[in-house]
């Protein structure tokens, strides 16, 4: 968009969607920017739904660099300090409020606990300031996680069937198919490992930086999953706009 287009789309009921990803290892078969690709797909799907109902929505350039300490030991992972992420999101929210956007929606696809804590801290601070309203459905938590398939619910949700399917749908040329097709399943649960105090993918049982079932991924499933992600963000935004969808804030 040009600055004039951005000026004209702003307003108290306009929604600015911030895709939030990571630059981190995603197995031998997916690119480092996998979470950026997923976050942008989620943001676009949500924007399509909002626009169809007459809500003005724009997708911001993504926040690609975030805190990724679980993947620190792998080549290519670029991890920020969590407080840097919190400060960046806060600054973006403040300038969106200055531009008179009523709602900031966070399309987050990166689930490292340090990163989620950095977003929670930012969202808490934005809500204290009251503007803009902020929609942040944490996919790792209920009720949203329950809508994202068995693998996701099991916690084996990094570079497995769920994420690989989305990249196959969005950017198939970036998936190393030779590698993916032969990858053995890794049902180790990341969420359980996190609860047990593990701090890295290696400690959690992911020596190659993947979990779950990447060989079972498909573009068709990825397209369906993107629609679910878009619906989740749409519902979270509707709750902030006071449309009374019945979904929790
Ligand atoms: Zn990911």
What characteristics describe this protein?
249 residues; alpha/beta; four-stranded parallel sheet; 9 helices; 4 strands; 44% helix; globular; disordered C terminus; binds zinc ion
Overview of the structural elements:
The chain is α/β, with parallel strands linked by helices. 44% of the residues lie in helices and 10% in strands. It has a four-stranded parallel beta sheet, sandwiched between helices. α6 crosses α9 (219-241). The two termini are 30 Å apart. The site of zinc ion has 5 residues, from α2.
Overall number of strands: 4
Runs in which pLDDT lies below 50 for 5 or more consecutive residues are 244-249
Number of helices: 9
Shape: globular
C-alpha end-to-end distance: 30 Å
Bound molecules: zinc ion
Q: Determine the strand fraction and express it as a percent band.
A: 5-15%
Side-by-side strand order of the widest sheet: 2-1-3-4
Provide the residue-averaged pLDDT: 94
Order of helices and strands: HEHEHEHEHHHHH
How does the helix and strand content classify structurally?
alpha/beta
Radius of gyration (CA) equals 18 Å
Helix content: 40-55%
What about the largest sheet?
4 strands, parallel
């Amino acid at each position: 968009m040009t600055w004039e287009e951005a000026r004209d789309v702003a307003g108290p009921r306009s929604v600015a969607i911030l895709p939030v990803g990571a630059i981190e290892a995603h197995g031998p078969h997916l690119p480092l920017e996998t979470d950026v690709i997923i976050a942008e797909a989620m943001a676009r799907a949500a924007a399509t739904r909002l626009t169809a109902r007459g809500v003005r929505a724009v997708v911001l350039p993504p926040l690609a660099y975030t805190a990724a300490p679980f993947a620190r030991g792998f080549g290519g992972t670029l991890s920020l300090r969590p407080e840097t992420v919190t400060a960046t999101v806060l600054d973006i929210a403040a300038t969106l409020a200055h531009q008179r956007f009523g709602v900031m929606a966070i399309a987050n696809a990166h689930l490292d606990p340090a990163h989620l804590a950095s977003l929670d801290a930012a969202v808490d601070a934005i809500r204290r300031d009251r503007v803009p309203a902020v929609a942040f459905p944490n996919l790792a938590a209920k009720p949203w996680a329950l809508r994202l398939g068995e693998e996701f619910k099991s916690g084996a949700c990094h570079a497995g069937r769920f994420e690989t399917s989305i990249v196959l749908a969005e950017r198939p040329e970036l998936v190393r198919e030779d590698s993916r097709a032969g990858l053995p399943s890794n049902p180790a649960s990341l969420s359980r490992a996190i609860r047990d105090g593990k701090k890295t993918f290696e400690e959690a049982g992911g020596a190659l930086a993947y979990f779950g079932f990447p060989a079972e991924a498909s573009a068709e499933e990825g397209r369906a999953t993107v629609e679910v992600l878009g619906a989740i963000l749409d519902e979270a935004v509707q709750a902030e706009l006071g449309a009374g969808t019945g979904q929790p804030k």
